[in-house]
Design goal:
The complex is a heterodimer of chains A (about 475) and B (about 450).
Chain A: H1 52-63, H2 86-91, H3 95-98, H4 110-127, E1 131-133, H5 139-156, E2 163-167, H6 173-180, E3 184-188, H7 198-204, E4 209-215, H8 227-236, E5 240-244, E6 264-266, E7 287-289, E8 301-305, E9 308-312, H9 329-365, E10 381-384, H10 386-389, H11 395-404, E11 411-412, E12 421-424, H12 432-451, H13 453-457, H14 470-475
Parallel strand pairs in A: 2-3, 2-4, 4-5, 5-6
Antiparallel strand pairs in A: 1-7, 6-7, 8-9, 10-12, 11-12
Chain B: H1 8-18, H2 23-26, H3 48-60, E1 68-69, H4 82-88, H5 91-94, H6 106-123, E2 127-128, H7 135-150, E3 154-158, H8 163-173, E4 179-183, H9 193-199, E5 204-210, H10 221-230, E6 234-239, E7 258-262, E8 278-282, E9 295-299, E10 305-309, H11 316-319, H12 332-369, E11 375-376, E12 385-389, H13 394-403, E13 406-407, E14 410-411, E15 422-426, H14 433-447
Parallel strand pairs in B: 1-13, 3-4, 3-5, 5-6, 6-7
Antiparallel strand pairs in B: 2-8, 7-8, 9-10, 11-12, 12-15, 14-15
Helix pairs in contact in B: 4-12, 6-12, 7-8, 12-14
Classes of the chains: A alpha/beta (about 475), B alpha/beta (about 450).
Chain lengths: ~475, ~450
């Protein structure tokens, strides 16, 4: 990263007449009548005009301003920023798989349908569930789909019910998804271990509650050991247990949501199954269900008969479609390649080392950073800035200072039940050396907090831009470039 | 191969530091009765060559590549310049997370800012977001947004909107107190004026239409906007073939309040349906009701320009159940591809490519309708897709074409009773004159 070059916006280096791409000449006779009746535009005002060299340098330079997993440690809690294997990218760019129109006749796309069905089956095995839809585009979309399935079931049984219970430690997408399904969210307070209080749940669980949304392990990295009793309480009142599968990297190969009496869960292929995040998507959020919810899955459903694959649209109880076509096919290919590469022992080892790495960091930083909950944790751990606060240093300062050490910071200020949270998820793909670099940097920052707090408050110092004024961005929104 | 760089020696030492005897102990919080006693029943592990071979073999079972295809209807086969694949596959673009730490994410953020600008320029609106999942969910988000802005529970949706988009709208709205009313089309293939006037009332939040619509016909947005606005309803326009905007007037200049759609045409492969790229733009005054991420410009501690995600008080991680949408991860990398694509083509390139698509479609339309028995179904003007009517059921004709190596078009009968004899045919710059002529010859043969 060469910080002296300030890369302008493409619009600022545009000049009339340039293009980076030559189109072939029109090979049919020009028909002036083709334009008849069309509202034509005069110009595309401000649209850029640059050469191929300029495009290439522009995006190469922009890319160099990004931190990424290929560059280094990326311990964003709840995001599972593991290494993205390159063979998966190659598989997902095979022309014989991807240069295919989604509405091609089934007989011409048997390979693709087989790949999707195979992924569904493997995800069923990994989760212990009975059926999977691959249609949802991302985790939040999966949540929405899952909650719609629950509502469709209740509706079909006479009463959609009114409430959804969600612990206060949950991801923000949980209440938001429940709300779009027409439910009123009731928050459940965590107990002193940071987990769901059974008493609280018993009190809130009524026959007007459609479901409990639970993340397991929860966002503190703590496993809900009472999960089966929790499920019994919910089931006793005719409700469903929805599990947010964002943290499956702590469980795969060790235990299965299906065996914990979970009724429906979504997975994040872009977390547990190593597909890259792309700077904010595309993800993929398959939803796995128990038999009882299968009739409500989105259409189409992929079915197999005698080695031939079909798309079944004739599902009268289905919630309908949640997006166009069949989901993020390229992302599915990457996840499938990953599962096949790992195999059953590899998948188990993935989880084991993810949990080992997290506990190694936790133990190494305990006492230096405050740990609000001391329950055992799995794949992630949540510290806070409580000790450093005494010197006027916040989690924001700590995170910004980490950037100066060439490291990506943990997730900040989440979960909400830990004030000043630093949520660390190392994943299994980090070496001891990288873990130690992070640990040492965190220790050094704690020393700096005591000795030279100003250094932290003004961090970062070596990045392409210094600390950015987010308040100004929101107060005076400049959301696009405009011609002067 | 589990991509694990922790050696046996590391494991031992790490366990020692943690103070446990085995990795097993770290899982003691999971009750014994729900722990797996054996390995999962999964295939593998496969080596890299075996993985590649596995997928290549499945690819060989896909016969699609051997066919000449005129399928479109929301997924378009356009040429992708080499720079798009090359630049977008850089690890610095592929492997970061959502730009939560802007100081080390300026690349992604500046790309989003440029993408938002390009979408605004194309649509003629003030504000665009960072992306949505696809055109169908974009359409659903648009009607939800309009109902938040206007407060009315009635949503008018054009029946010539892509049928899958309509299905998604129904799925998204069915649990909310909203009423979706479909507006019929007329013989031009456009929204029926009388039907529209009759459906509008004081509870109407929005008219959502598509242009070019599912029949490929370009709507008269200006008059639709006037009619909707006269009833205090918003006009939301869906664009599923945004290449048309290289040639057609920006919907924002014709009265659209929201423009949403599918930008797969801009540098994304067909990919058997995904990932694609939803986009959304709107007038300034509605920005607080916009769903999804938005990047904005600001300054750093030294006064230099920089970009951040902004206006996040609309979003789920702050507002939870009161958020404008539950969307979190979106389609950033797809938006990157579209940005590279559009900047590569540029102002002249995009206009010319749109014109080439229009001309080729016009040629194909003329060529195919000169075959006895083949008629243009709708009279409205088209861009690169059109509906033809045949003397027999399209399913039958389509099968005969398929036997001769051609996928002639999408069947409409499934979604539109009465259009069993019709097909939607799409022509892009990838269809040479020779291919179009071949299609016409074979079709004539089949109909004879």
């Amino acid at each position: 990263m060469i910080n002296v070059i300030r890369e302008p916006l493409i619009f600022e280096i545009s000049s009339p007449g340039k293009t980076a791409f030559r189109l072939p000449p029109l090979d049919v006779p020009e028909n002036p009548r083709a334009l008849e009746g069309l509202p034509l535009r005069e110009d595309i005002d401000g649209f850029p005009e640059v050469s191929e060299t300029e495009v290439t340098r522009h995006f190469t330079r922009l890319s160099q301003m990004n931190y990424c997993v290929d560059f280094g440690f990326y311990p964003l809690g709840s995001c599972t920023m593991k290494y993205n294997p390159k063979i998966n990218e190659k598989v997902a760019s095979l022309g014989s798989l991807i240069d295919i129109h989604p509405l091609a006749p089934e007989s011409l796309v048997q390979g693709n349908l087989e790949l999707m069905k195979t992924l569904e089956r493997l995800l069923c095995e990994i989760t212990g569930m009975d059926a999977v839809t691959l249609q949802p585009a991302a985790g939040a979309h999966g949540e929405l789909t899952g909650m719609m399935l629950i509502r469709a079931y209740h509706q079909a049984h006479g009463n959609p019910r009114k409430y959804v219970l969600i612990p206060d430690s949950a991801h923000g997408t949980n209440p938001s998804s429940a709300h779009i399904c027409g439910y009123v969210v009731k928050e459940i307070k965590s107990n002193e271990r940071g987990t769901i209080s059974l008493e609280e749940l018993e009190k809130e669980m009524t026959e007007e509650v459609a479901a409990l949304m639970v993340t397991n392990p929860n966002t503190l990295g703590v496993f809900e050991s009472d999960i089966c009793r929790i499920a019994d309480i919910v089931h006793a009142k005719g409700g469903f247990v929805y599990m947010d599968g964002a943290n499956l990297n702590a469980l795969a190969g060790i235990t299965r949501p299906g065996d914990m009496k979970v009724d429906v869960l979504h997975l994040n292929l872009h977390k547990t199954f190593s597909t890259p995040h792309g700077g904010g998507g595309p993800g993929s959020g398959p939803v796995a269900v128990k038999k009882i919810l299968e009739p409500y899955l989105p259409v189409p459903v992929i079915e197999e008969k005698d080695g031939r694959y079909y798309l079944n649209y004739n599902r009268p109880q289905s919630i309908g479609r949640v997006k166009s076509f069949y989901g993020h096919f390229q992302v599915m290919l990457k996840a499938l390649a990953y599962i096949l590469t790992l195999g059953p022992a590899g998948l188990r080892e993935m989880t084991e080392i993810a949990v080992l790495n997290s506990n190694y960091i936790r133990k190494s930083l305990e006492g230096i950073y405050h740990l609000k909950y001391d329950a055992p944790t799995l794949h992630e751990c949540v510290f806070s800035d409580k000790y450093q606060k005494e010197f006027g240093i916040t989690n924001l300062d700590i995170c910004k200072r980490l950037l100066d050490y060439g490291l990506h910071p943990p997730t900040m200020s989440f979960p909400l039940i830990v004030h000043g949270a630093l949520m660390i998820e190392p994943t299994e793909t980090e070496s001891r050396r990288d873990l130690d670099l992070f640990i040492e940097a965190m220790k050094a920052i704690d020393r700096e907090a005591r000795e030279n707090p100003e250094l932290l408050r003004t961090a970062p110092h070596i990045t392409y831009v210094r600390r950015l004024d987010e308040v100004q961005a929101a107060r005076n929104p400049v959301l696009r470039w405009e011609k002067k | 191969m589990s991509y694990i760089p922790i050696s046996e020696k590391d494991r031992k030492e790490m366990l020692e530091r943690i103070g446990v005897g085995s990795i097993e102990e770290l899982f003691c919080c999971i009750p014994e009765n729900i722990r797996l006693k054996e390995l999962l029943n999964l295939p593998g592990p496969l080596s890299e060559p075996e993985v590649l071979q596995y997928f290549q073999e499945k690819g060989e079972k896909n016969l699609y590549g051997q066919y000449l295809s005129f399928l479109g209807g929301g997924a378009y086969d356009h040429f992708i310049p080499a720079v798009v694949d090359y630049l977008s596959s850089r690890g610095e673009f592929v492997t970061p997370y959502t730009p939560y730490q802007p100081e080390v994410s300026q690349g992604t953020l500046q790309v989003i800012f440029e993408f938002q600008t390009l979408i605004c320029q194309l649509t003629g609106l003030d504000i665009a977001n960072a992306s949505l999942y696809d055109g169908a969910t974009g359409a659903a988000e648009a009607v939800l947004m309009a109902s938040r802005v206007k407060g009315g529970r009635r949503l008018l949706v054009a029946s010539n909107l892509n049928p899958e988009y309509r299905q998604v709208i129904y799925t998204y709205t069915r649990n909310l107190d909203l009423e979706v009313v479909e507006i019929p089309y007329d013989r031009s293939g456009r929204i029926d004026r009388a039907g529209l006037e009759a459906a509008l009332n004081s509870q109407t939040s929005v008219l959502l239409c598509q242009s070019p619509n599912y029949f490929g016909v370009v709507e008269d947005l200006k008059s639709l906007g006037e009619i909707a606005h006269a009833h205090q309803a918003m006009l939301a326009v869906v664009i599923s073939e945004p290449l048309s905007l290289g040639l057609l007037e920006a919907p924002g200049k014709l009265g659209a309040d929201i423009v949403t759609g599918e930008a797969q045409s801009f540098g994304l492969p067909l990919s058997f349906g995904g990932p694609y790229l939803g986009f959304m733009a709107c007038r300034k005054e509605f920005v607080r009701q916009m769903p999804g991420r938005i990047a904005g410009q600001t300054v750093d501690a030294e006064g230099r320009r920089g970009f951040v995600l902004t206006l996040s008080t609309r979003e789920q991680h702050i507002r939870r159940e009161k958020a404008t949408s539950n969307i979190c991860t979106n389609q950033a990398h797809c938006a990157l591809r579209a940005t590279i694509y559009l900047e590569t083509l540029g102002r002249q390139g995009l206009k010319k490519l749109a014109w080439i698509n229009l001309q080729k479609a016009a040629y194909a339309l003329e060529k195919l309708t000169s075959i006895p028995g083949v008629k243009r179904k709708f009279t409205g003007p088209v861009f690169n897709e059109f509906v033809l009517e045949f003397p027999a059921e399209w399913e039958t004709i389509s099968r005969k074409l398929e036997e001769r190596g051609i996928l002639g078009g999408l069947s409409l009968g499934k979604f539109y009773p009465g259009l069993d004899n019709c097909a939607l045919i799409t022509v892009t710059e990838k269809h040479s004159r020779e291919k179009i002529d071949h299609f016409a010859r074979v079709l004539e043969e089949v109909l004879r």
